[in-house]
Every structure is written in structure tokens, then in C-alpha cells.
Amino acid sequence: MRRRLSTKLDPGFVARLSLNIALDGMLAAAAVAAAFWLANPQHPWPAPPTLPLAGAAAIWLIGVPFGLSRLHWRFISLRDLSRVGVAALLTALMLTLLLFGAGLALPSPGFPIILALCLIVLLTAPKLIYRLARQAPAPRAATAEQTALLVGNGESAELFLAAMARFAAAPYRVTGLLALSARHTGRRVHGLDVIGAAEQAGPVLARLAAAGRAPDLLIVATPEFAGDALAALLATAETYGVRVLRAPNLTNLAPANAAEKIALQPIAIEDLLNRRQVALDRGAMARLVTGRRVLVTGAGGSIGAELARQVAALRPAELLLLDNGEYALWQIDLELAELHPTLPRRAVIADVRAAPRLAEICQDFRPELVFHAAALKHVPIVEANPLEGLQTNVLGTRAVADAARAAGAKLMVLISTDKAVNPSSVMGATKRLAEMYCQGLDVSARHDTAAMRCVTVRFGNVLGSTGSVVPLFRRQLAAGGPLTVTHPDMQRYFMTVGEAVGLVLQASAVGADTLERDRFGLNQPWFDLKRESPSQVKLEHDSEVEGEARSASTSTDHALAIPEGGIFVLDMGEPVKIVDLARQMIRLAGLRPEQDIGIRYTGLRPGEKLFEELFHGGEQPAPTGFAGLLMARPRTADMRAVTAAIDAIATAAQTGDAKAALAALARLVPEYGQPTAPAPALAVPGVAG
What we know:
By secondary structure, the protein is an alpha/beta fold. It contains 20 helices and 22 strands. The radius of gyration is 34 Å and the shape is elongated.
């Protein structure tokens, strides 16, 4: 027996609906009467007298498809008002045709226009007045307020001011606007004057200070306002003792509630990185990952976890997360379970140094694509524990590569570091030796169609990563300082973790496509080729990925020659002085460097350099044709020598002989431990800066 579904309407809703219907009918009737009076004041009464009732009936009939009775007057929008206007025009047309059809004379030739205007005014004006009355800001206590200038474009400023108007006790009062462009100066938004542009903040603040109306705050309302422009605004504001805060994302604003406030947020240090947005080839990245079995080592770390997030979003067939830290692995596994509940995945605790365990995992999982992010990266700690660094960064890389290759993986991506260039530390030298091993594998794979290819991606520091300087500075700020900097001249390259991983995936897709083209002389990506033989090429796209590839702006259509063992290097922009970073973070906290919070120099730690380099003197940088990616023309070593050195390191590690292990490392990486002078600037064709 079929169950009958019943819908019970809320009595309050029915009452409001009935009230709206009655009001619209009354307003339409009044509009008809007013139109007759305006059209012929000598004979103001409608003829026939029942015509106003016909107007009410017409608006009820026409209002049904326009949903007029369901409009919420308090939140009526311009779109809603336009619908009311169209309904009014149709009602005027219907009544005019009714008069013609009944053979009745019009009170004047302009009656249809007068009737339409009366209907539009009387049906829209009460609704608009009601909204304005309900949204009028409540009076605020002037004694408890701070004054602020709002910085942003018109859209973001309008939304922020509209949201703030719903609060009766905002702790600040906006007195003017700074636009992002000088051409908007002199205009008004929500009753406030645009008194200048953000780039003119200095003269504006000076003028206001001279008049005794200097603001207490600058509120940045536009999320895209960042980089050099934001840094200049901060410097100007500091000169005049004005704090700069950022408005929350408008999508996160709380609903109108008098008990709540719009919480302003400090400017994040990431906002000051002057980095342009790089357009990534999402189609190529999807073709690289979608439908493939992917292994991520070091999945609990900063880079590994972000790799897992971005790979999971590209819908692999299955994702294996590998890490030797239980808690970090649990965190990323739980996050992916919430974000991608249908994605098949495994979380495996394993040490990359355990070659038999890795071989067992890879034989069971059969990865097609491997991202190797597991490494020991903290320079002083690895310097104090060299055998641990050698076993993880060198022997671990070899164990992962050999296990993946034996299991039939098609591509391995090694995450490297700028510290591998002219390394002065054990950590940097171990990463350079790991690069050399993967370069050797890739060179040998050029002549073996069944062999695994290797792509190496090198980049500098990522902001906010585990063990990086930004979290350290935040903890020191919270404790009241001082902020510790090793040397006043120390500088580093910085990039956000999301941007770095996006470019790693871009490099992986570019490298995979290009390497396969080199091998077969065909314009097909590596993962579409069935490796039966070079002459038996078969496409294996699934239709969904094929559609993504066609819709993407695939920049891999032009040829890119990757030299044997070539290394992708992320374009990190200009290096940043660590002391400047410390001072900026102090300012962002609303404090003054060296006055409110001190800076203490602690001296270089073992293995540290004043500067890092992205290219060795023997690695001439070359453009790739892809934004954000460069290519280091490689210095490759004989694979037999690399293998012998790694074997010697493994033997020394087994006996605990750190001296012998480091000697074997130095033989393969001669720059290790030798002081280096700042590298001369290298011109990169087609790359700005």
C-alpha cells in the first residue's frame, strides 16, 4: 500500500503569504484609482467603478509566476524589485487590453503609461522603504569606538559595510574609503567618501592627522590586495602609528546578530610575498593522476600532506599514504577521509630506510606514480646526527626508487631542496646524492621502454612548514620576544606550501609528457602509452579525463627538450632577508621592532649558509616555457660510482662509522663542506627577474 505524503504548511508562513497577497491587491487597486485621477482630474473616479478590483485580481494572477506573494520584504533585492516592475508592466498591459476589449474609452491617451508608472511606484516603494527602515543602523556609542579607513575595491567595501551595518555595537566606525585605484577618488559608497587610493595612503593620513581626524585602523577588505602594495601600505601605516587589519572573508561573515562582531584578523605574512599567481595546467595534472595508483612517502609532513591533498582532489584510482610517524599519518588520513570519503586509500606506517618492507608494500600496492617527499630536512639536527640523515635521505631514496621500479611504477618524483646546491651541510649533501641517484636512474631509463622514469623537483623554503622560521617567530611573539635570527645578512627563498606543491605537480606532468615524447618521438603523454613495444601504441584515456584534457589549456603541446637527468627548479622569486621577515612579523602583530619586541642574533648554526642557491655554477638555468618552472641543465655522475658510494655509506652505517660514511659522501659531492661565495646572477632567457 502506497503511503500518502502530506505537506503541512507552517501557520506563520501561511499568515505572511496571505498578508502579502492582500497588500499587493490593495496597492494595485490604489494604483488603478490613482492612474484614473492623474489621467483625467475632472473625472477622477474609475469607470467602471469595479476596475480597481480588476487591478487587484490581475496582480494576483500575474504575480503567481513571479512569486510576488513569497517575497521577503526585509531582504528584498534589486532583482526582486525588477520582477515586481515587470509584473506591474504586464498588469498595466492586461488592464488596458481589458478596457479596449470591453469597448470602454480611456480617460486619456497617456493612460497606459500613467497606469504602468503608478503600479510600479506603489508596488515597489513600500517594499523598498520597509527594507531601508529595517536595515537602518542602530545608534552607536561614540565614546567606545575606534575610527577606521576601509581599503578595497567597491564590491568588497560594499559587502563589508552592509554586513557591519547589521551590528549595533561595532567597536570601530568607518569614516572613509581608500580605493585600489585613484580613478575612484571622490565617489561615495554606502554614504562614505572615497578619499584617495591605497597608494596615496601617506598623503591621506598626513592630511587627516593635520586635521585631528587620524584613523586608528586601516581595514583591508579585498582579499586580493597583497604583495608589494600591501607591504607599502603597512610601512606607511607604521609611520603614522596606524594598525592594519584584514576583514574576514565575506563568505564567512556571521549572520546578523547584535551579540556578535565582525572579527578582524591580523595580516598574514604569506600575504606579503610578492608572488604572481601562476596559471597551472590542470588538465595535464589530471591526466597525470586520475585513475592511477599513487604512493606518497612522507605523507605526514608539510610537503607530503599537501601533496596528498592535491593528489586526492585529482581522483586517483587509489592513494597510499606512507610515513613513519603515527600521529602525523593519522591526521592526514582523517582529513582526506572527511574531504574525499569515497577515495580508496591506505595509510601505512613504514620507514623508507627499511628496503624489504618497502619492497613488500610496493609489490602489494603496485604504484604507478610515486611522490617521494620523505626526508630529514632540519640542517642542525642532521648535522648532529649524520648517519640518520644519510640513511633516510640517501639509502631511503634508493630503497623507495628500487622498490617502485621493481613493482612496475612508471614515474617517480623526487622532492629536493635548494640546500643540495653547493651544500655546506650533511643534509644538503645527502639530498644532492639522492638527486644524483635519481638522475642516474633516469639516464639509464632513456634506453629501456619498460624502466621507471625519474623527475627531480628542487625548491627552497616553504612558509609555515614544520620546523620553519615562521612558526618559530609566532611562538616567540606570543611569549613576548625576543625573535632570534642567526645572522643579520641571512636570506632565504620562500614560497607557500600550496604553491610549491602545485608547481611540483605541474613539473611532474610536464616532465612525464616530455620524457615520453623524447622516448617514442610521439606527441602522447607517458601514461597513455601501453608499454608493449615502441611500435604498439595504444590510447588508454577514460572519457572523463579525456574531456578534462580537451577543456584545459594544455601548454604541453609544444616541445620541451629535457636533457638527460635534468632537474626542474621552481622559480622562487627574490630571496628574503630573515631579519626583514622578523621585523615584518612584529609589525603585523601591531608592535614596533626593537622597541616593543627585540631581535637577538644567535650566530650561524652548524651546516648553515648565509644564502641558498637554486642553481650550481655548472647548472645553467634554462626556461621551460611554463610559468614558475625552470630547468637546471644537469651535472650527471657515473651511475657505477654513485652506486658504489651509496653501498659504502650503507656499510659504514651498519657499523656506525660516521667518518667513513661522510668520506664516501664527500667523494661524490665535492662541494660538501667547502665555503662558497655568493653566486653571480645568471640570466635566464624568457624569465623576468
